[in-house]
């Protein structure tokens, strides 16, 4: 057994302790590779931090890192243990003259207008065979897949280090990597949710996250993820967010329990709500490496996510010469749920306006010198009810509060919203707030979002200053089909 085979077997066994891919699938992939070509020694080139620039993609430390993403990457292979590989994906046939004659019955992509909307008029696309079966080498050409619900075509050339191999093509994601070298990885899948600060750092967290799947920026902001590059783009005629990100690996900024060894990491996301069970392990982001992500808007349905990661000396050339042409070639058909009849949808985004007045009490000084403050005040407007507040003034310039709103939201119903709020004062007396919804009950169950607070100048005519706050609730309201 070669050094690569030994390392590959070891790394997959370690990764399997944290995720739930089908062991049979990986044995089949290895067996097909072994049957196709003799074993060769594969050295993994290590780069130091000094060799990287801001725009360069850091090298993935070992093939196991890409294997981990191939198993648990953003393409979201949420396959349970023991599930068989898909057997209904035909291998393209070859005509006597070498031309590929096989076509697919996949839905024809619709014509798209300049603003990315679908017109319903069919476009003239070349006939495209389906992706080859898992473990099979991919010849350069245009391929079609409807595995992730929304059909698409994609043109694949050669990988820069080896031909592409299909490692997944089902509702959990379409994934390819460079055969033998495992140095190039591209995946497409559906995102149902992202993890908030606490979920991302909880090794035992399972199932969906609290941040909606279409809110990539919410996950980035909640977890202090570093954005290296950002743009609003189109992919396949659909609006998309492009973010190139990496973790803040400062000690204490992340967790450190990701396989195959203790390295900086966070839980990132999980797949479609139509597929993810409550005990599903989330997708980790690990190490100080760049991830290029395209989050593609699918209208009312969960977004498609595209992830690309290199393990090469010249990452910029790989991105420009290999990845970008692939992303540019994608053409999406009519948006659809990940599975037929699926009910998962992106939430409605609504704004609600209200106001309240509150005095600033003296509070109670604690042994550590901080001041505990509490109170209840009435809120009116699109929200009517009461907000109970308990908080700590750490210094005269900053503190935090736990807030609970109990009452009614116009058009939604009644229930409670639990919020966590941090505030910071400035030298001129202004106070800024960051307020996030952490829980919801009653008719508000499943609602996420935040509250924006603007304070008017206090009325100081009485014994205590009285503040009037004008608040805007930005709510993501769950929707099912």
Major sheet: arrangement of strands: 3-6-7-8-16-15-12-11
Quick check: average pLDDT?
Answer: 77
The geometry reads as elongated
Count helical runs.
6
* Separation, N- and C-terminal Cα atoms: 51 Å
Structural class computed from helices and strand pairing: mainly beta
Total number of strands: 26
Question: What topology does this entry show?
Answer:
Blueprint: H1 3-16, H2 23-36, H3 63-72, E1 110-112, E2 118-122, E3 137-138, E4 141-145, E5 152-156, E6 164-170, E7 173-178, E8 184-190, E9 193-194, H4 197-201, E10 211-212, H5 216-223, E11 226-235, E12 238-246, E13 265-270, E14 283-286, E15 291-298, E16 301-310, H6 315-329, E17 331-332, E18 348-359, E19 364-365, E20 371-381, E21 383-395, E22 398-409, E23 413-425, E24 431-442, E25 448-455, E26 466-477
Antiparallel strand pairs: 1-2, 3-6, 4-5, 5-17, 6-7, 7-8, 8-16, 9-10, 9-13, 11-12, 12-15, 13-14, 15-16, 18-20, 18-26, 19-20, 20-21, 21-22, 22-23, 23-24, 24-25, 25-26
Helix pairs in contact: 1-3
Keywords:
disordered N terminus; 481 residues; mainly beta; 14% helix; 8-stranded antiparallel beta sheet; 39% strand
Explain how this protein is built:
The protein has 481 residues and is mainly beta. It contains six helices and 26 strands. The strands form five sheets. An eight-stranded antiparallel beta sheet has the order 3-6-7-8-16-15-12-11, with helices on both faces. It has an eight-stranded antiparallel barrel with strand order 18-20-21-22-23-24-25-26. It has a four-stranded antiparallel beta sheet with strand order 10-9-13-14. Strand 23 and strand 24 (431-442) form a beta hairpin. Helix 1 (3-16) packs parallel to helix 3. Mean pLDDT is 77; it is low at 1-23 and 36-126.
